[in-house]
UniProtKB/TrEMBL annotation:
Name this protein carries in UniProt: NADH:ubiquinone reductase (H(+)-translocating)
GO biological process, one term: ATP synthesis coupled electron transport
A Pfam family matched in the record: Proton_antipo_M
Membrane topology per record: Multi-pass membrane protein
Keywords in alphabetical order: Membrane, Mitochondrion, Transmembrane, Transmembrane helix
Organism: Protanthea simplex
Record-annotated membrane-spanning stretches: 20-39, 45-66, 78-102, 129-150, 162-182, 216-242, 254-270, 282-308, 320-342, 354-375, 407-428
GO-annotated molecular function: NADH dehydrogenase (ubiquinone) activity
All residue ranges annotated as the NADH:quinone oxidoreductase/Mrp antiporter transmembrane domain in the record: 92-368
């Protein structure tokens, strides 16, 4: 109802402030679900669903801050639709509600990705995301049809077949797993991510890289997908993401490949299927959301530049931004004692405890390779001056001003990345309480 009201209100007014109010009300409603767990056949509310909803709502807050007050109209409504679909996705309890909840944010993202007016890259990115997304949706529906025909109903396997968590398998399970891996941009279903990230507006990238992935991650844990396919995706994501980013010259494409590596770590915890590994994956996903929002927020503030070389000179003009961005890149690389190191450490610890030695070695090697281009980025930020042709472009753009909302967002990310590892007990307790709801 709130979104429908905003559609009418946005005809003559800016929807940004009211959208933030709606998001706050939804957050409050999500917290109330902690006290009243329930299930009605289509949606299920438990500690796992509530925790991932809170991560989704926090991630959905960043685009409202990044788009600024000048971008009214339909954009805040579309962001709210993405948040609504993702929150329904984490609570889905059968294939019908799962498909409907998965398509709602996807259709909204089609529009947001191609919303950069006058840009051929944006139109191409929207078209590519639409075509490949339609293909993934078709595969998902076909897989759901096979599983529903086998089980005799639309419920998940653990509910109708009377089996424990451990998986949808066979042809239907493979199709569903592949479609969900596409939504996560995990290799070998990653081909859309670099092009879409490059063409989409930077604020949309912050949304695309966080909110839908949290929803798909949550439902993957609930479905317990075909584990062999997930393990293959883990290895491909680690190798393709680390190797593909080495020769990138554009910051958005590099962050897209970085996200592929992170999804490899997240999927690895899902594939192990234990309480400790699922808890480690949830911690990693939360930290990934923080790091991605921080990186994209600084790119927006610095003017939305796409070439990596344009970050040269950032430390001289905006030293605080440079330190925060360098801290974010080091955290993404897993350099101790930052929070990114904590996430990778818990995933690797779970992998070694369960005998995944080869995958652990692969993950460590790929993290070292990924660290090469993160260190290169930090070198460009602090020790490389402008390219001779880039100085003129920066002069034409003029100085960039940071408003209060963006400054608070970047400051919060800076605090969490730099000081969060000093007292991570609260994060561990919340992740443990959430993961217990799935076992």
């Amino acid at each position: 109802m709130s979104i429908l009201f905003l559609l009418i209100y946005s005809v003559k007014n800016s929807t940004l402030k009211i959208s933030l109010l709606v998001l706050g009300c939804v957050t409050y409603w999500a917290w109330l679900d902690v006290l009243l767990p329930w299930q009605n056949g289509f949606l299920t509310i438990n500690s796992w669903a509530v925790s991932t909803k809170m991560v989704i709502l926090v991630g959905a807050l960043s685009p409202f801050i990044l788009i600024g007050p000048s971008r009214g109209g339909a954009t805040p409504v579309l962001v709210l639709l993405v948040a609504l679909g993702s929150t329904l996705l984490v609570s889905a309890s059968n294939y019908i509600s799962l498909y409907l909840a998965m398509e709602l944010p996807t259709l909204s993202l089609f529009i947001l990705v191609s919303q950069k007016g006058g840009s051929g890259l944006s139109a191409e990115a929207g078209l590519k995301y639409f075509v490949l997304g339609a293909l993934a949706s078709g595969l998902f529906l076909f897989g759901c049809g096979l599983l529903c025909g086998f089980s005799g109903g639309p419920g998940f396997p653990g509910e109708e077949l009377g089996v424990s968590r451990g998986g949808i398998s066979g042809g239907g399970g493979l199709l569903i797993t592949g479609a969900l891996l596409f939504k996560l941009s995990a290799a070998p279903f990653h081909m859309w991510a670099p092009d879409v990230y490059e063409g989409a507006p930077t604020a949309t990238n912050a949304l695309l890289a966080t909110v839908p992935k949290v929803g798909v991650f949550s439902i993957l844990v609930a479905l317990a997908p075909w584990l062999k396919a997930v393990l293959i995706a883990v290895l491909f994501s680690l190798v393709v993401g680390a190797g593909g980013a080495l020769n990138q010259i554009k910051i958005k494409r590099l962050l897209a490949y970085s996200g592929i590596v992170h999804m490899g770590f997240v999927l690895w915890g899902i594939e192990m299927g234990s309480l400790e590994s699922v808890q480690a994956s949830l911690i990693y996903m939360v930290l990934y959301v923080i790091m991605a929002i921080c990186a994209f927020a600084i790119v927006v503030v610095w003017g939305g530049q796409n070439l990596i070389v344009e970050l040269g000179g950032l430390s001289r003009k905006e030293p605080i931004l440079a330190i925060t961005l360098g801290l974010a890149f080091f955290s993404i690389a897993g350099v101790p004692p930052l929070l990114g190191f904590l996430g990778k450490w818990w995933i690797l610890l779970a992998g070694i405890n369960y005998g995944y030695y080869l995958v652990s070695i692969t993950a460590v090697v790929c993290s070292v390779v990924a660290g090469v281009y993160y260190v290169r980025l930090v070198k460009i930020i602090f020790f490389q001056t402008h390219a001779f042709w880039g100085v003129g472009l920066k002069a034409l753009r003029g100085p960039q001003r940071i408003n209060l909302g963006r400054a608070l967002l970047i400051g919060a990310c800076f605090y969490l990345l730099g000081l969060g590892i000093i007292c991570p007990n609260l994060l561990f307790q919340l992740a443990h309480g959430s993961a217990v709801g799935m076992f």
